[in-house]
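Order emerges. For instance:

***
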Amino acid sequence: MSTALHNLSLTLACSLCNCQASFFIETFGKTYLRCQQCSSVFMHPKDYMDSAKEQMRYETHNNDIHDKRYQKFVSPITKTVEKNFSTQAKGIDFGCGTGPVATHVLQQKGFKNIALYDPYFHNHPEVFKEKYDFIMCCEVMEHFYQPQVEFKKLRQLLKPGGQLLCKTRLFLAHENQTDFEKWHYKDDKTHVFFYGEKSLAYIKDQMGFKTLDFNKKLIQFGL
């Protein structure tokens, strides 16, 4: 069987909803599938970076917490926290990377009770023993190899009335292979899972969130 025909017949279980995903596109040497149920697009696991290379890639990110442009980038999340929670609220900056800028911005506003977690740079699993009023997940969910597992974990970390605040780029239902091939967001080799409207609805309904609001700048799941 030729490679092209093999790809066309390729199927895999979606790591978000467990339904069947079929071959979507091969571009820049990487294979992507699209879920027939939740419409998510994800990289085939054979094309994942190994953990050492992945960490090296993250270390190249210039996440300067004092960079005003970076602070503006995370502002949809930080401003929502300021609006919806008191400075006494307890939060976690999940996947904060080398420069936890959202935490820095909020600390300057009086929010002192924010935990940091990152599997490479702040690997402190004891934070998972606590419950939080808000979780910040800025440019993180597209890195999830197992989004169902990760979102269940995040849901369990929230207190009643809490909010999970996410920022990522969505790949919408009407967009096709040509759109994806031109889409710069997939060019980061550590971006492996891309969500759309149906993906977010699945997370809300199946993980037990009560509310979902989203736009181009912010995704909010609420309890």
